[in-house]
Amino acid sequence: MDRAADLKIRGKVISGLARSIQNGARDISSVVNSLKTILKEEWWKERIITTGEVVRFDRFIDFVTTPPLEGLGTDVKTIMNLCRDDLDIQRAIDRAVKRPVGPPMKDEALNSDIVTNNDRQGGNSRQAAYRRLEKEGRTDLLDRIDAGEISPHRAMIEAGFRKPPKTINLNTDPFTTAQKIVEMCGEEYLSAMFQAYMSMWQDKS
User: Fold this and answer.
1) Which residue in 11, 87, 180, 183 has its CB near the most CB atoms, within 10 A?
2) Does residue 133 lie in a domain region?
3) Residues 77-110: pLDDT tens digits?
4) Total structural domains in the chain?
5) Residue 135 · residue 122 · CB < 8 Å
6) Is 145 a domain residue?
7) Residue range of the domain that includes 191
8) Which long-range contacts does 23-31 make (Cβ < 8 Å, 24+ apart)?
9) Assigned domain for 103 exists
10) Where are the alpha helices (DSSP H) in the chain?
11) 129 in a domain, yes or no?
């Protein structure tokens, strides 16, 4: 297959994907499969569209947000949501939208701040966990997640990036439990709990 024919095939696949997304992406599996090919083969970087023009992109984010015919005419959040059940493709999208090495442009710096803030607010989100583990080179834990051995949250704990959840053993005596609550939450919280309990007890009586 010559170069021009290859670029035309890319264009047809991407045009079909753009139409599907614009029409509500009823066939999710088709959308995901198209995105996998487009990302793996990097078809988004160069193709021939229906007008016969050659379209090129240096950044995946521009390919996603540019209106058709040149781009998909959507946003990263939308395609991430369409692929929410496929963690591999989400990781591929995440890698593709990362800012390239070098001084950021003004709009790139703004987008970077937004992503960072969302990650902080996201807490235990699967995507944030994948991003951190991949950044730190913990492919061993990523492989275990993909194999279904552990959850992303458990992997973050094993990597030392998150603290294990604090628990209280209710099978111990009340005094020990109270001490644990004070250690975890402080005396004011324990006092408020006691007052709430007394209020509930009085209401029942």
Assistant:
1) 11
2) no
3) 999 999 888 888 888 898 888 744 444 443 333 3
4) 2
5) no
6) no
7) 174-204
8) 25/82, 28/82, 31/82, 31/83
9) no
10) 3-22, 28-40, 60-65, 76-82, 87-97, 106-122, 126-135, 139-146, 152-159, 174-185, 187-204
11) no
